[in-house]
Amino acid sequence: MDSIHVLLETSEGDMLAVLYPEAAPKTVANFLAYVDEGHYNETLFHRIVRGFVVQGGGYDRFWVKKPVKEPVPNEAHNGLSNRKGTLAMARTPEKDSARDEFFINAADNTALDHRDETDEGFGYSVFGELVEGFDVLKKINWKVVKARPDFPEAPQEEVVLYSVQRFA
């Protein structure tokens, strides 16, 4: 299968990622469905934890949750690790609850990898990784955080995901 790349255009610069449909077919299909409908355009990176993750894709620039599709089955048992620069799906404590939000690991976060079949131990499904833009990831991850109602790890200064575009 040919490689699938996505360009993430942000207010801090561009990041290029390769996706892994062989390892996470349902997760990649879910992510690309959101990409193709423009769901991620003009959304926020709403959660920044320095030395851990930057998370986005679910909220528009007014901090309003975007409409979502049905959750996708968790594919964290695919052998891919939550290493620095990898993309993974965010979820609630229930293992099969990922929808539109994703995060980029800003460090090696192997504690987020699949450990067992319980909801807590199932892990977070890695489905791609950055091939360019590590400087942009670092710039976003070092933003000053200022808690907002319901968003304790929100950046003080808006960090926008202008668009996500795919290409082969």
Report what the structure shows:
- There is one protein chain.
- This protein is mostly beta strands and 168 residues long.
- It has one domain: Cyclophilin.
- Helices cover 12% and strands 31% of the residues.
- The chain has two helices and eight strands, in the order E-E-H-E-E-E-E-E-H-E.
- It has an eight-stranded antiparallel β-barrel.
- The radius of gyration is 15 Å and the shape is globular.
Radius of gyration: 15 Å
Low-confidence segments, ≥5 residues, pLDDT <50? none
CATH topology annotation: Cyclophilin
**DSSP strand content:** 25-35%
Count, helices? 2
Mean pLDDT: 97
CATH superfamily: Cyclophilin-like
CATH class label: Mainly Beta
The arrangement of helices and strands along the chain is: EEHEEEEEHE
Separation, N- and C-terminal Cα atoms: 10 Å
Strand order of the largest sheet: 1-2-7-5-6-4-3-8
Most strands sheet? 8 strands, antiparallel, barrel
The SS-based structural class is mainly beta
CATH architecture: Beta Barrel
Structurally, the number of domains stands at: 1
Enzyme class: isomerase
Protein name: Peptidyl-prolyl cis-trans isomerase
Function: PPIases accelerate the folding of proteins. It catalyzes the cis-trans isomerization of proline imidic peptide bonds in oligopeptides.
GO molecular function, one term: peptidyl-prolyl cis-trans isomerase activity
